[in-house]
Write a structure and sequence with these properties.
Shape: elongated
Structural class: mainly alpha
Number of helices: 3
Number of strands: 0
């Protein structure tokens, strides 16, 4: 093998290894980005679950509360009461004070790692 052939073979080997390294780096970056997106989706799902849970708890609490005769009442209040309770649930979930979303997200992430 001449010096030129050896140099060309070494260059081909280096390029091949460089391509493999670049592909591995790209795969790592994609899986890392996918993992971050996946974790963000898990956290969003957990927060949504907490909002639904809080709304359900609040809806039972508000069952016994009647309309204020001075400022409320009527069909409109009855119709939009559930929307208001859903918004209360979402607001509670966004504060993170209940802590349900954190626990649910941790369990979902553990389940995905298995």
């Amino acid at each position: 093998m001449s010096g030129i052939d050896a140099t060309a073979a070494a260059a081909d080997l280096a390029m091949s290894q460089g391509r493999q390294s670049a592909v591995q780096s790209a795969d790592t970056a994609v899986s890392s980005a996918h993992g971050k997106a996946n974790i963000a989706q898990v956290k969003k799902s957990a927060t949504d679950f907490e909002a639904v849970f809080a709304s359900e708890m609040l809806s039972h609490m508000f069952e016994g509360v009647g309309a204020d005769p001075m400022f409320g009442g009527g069909n409109g209040e009855e119709m939009f009461k559930s929307v208001l309770i859903d918004q209360y649930g979402k607001a509670l979930a966004q504060t993170g004070k209940l802590g349900i979303a954190d626990k649910v997200a941790a369990e979902l992430i553990k389940a995905q790692e298995r």
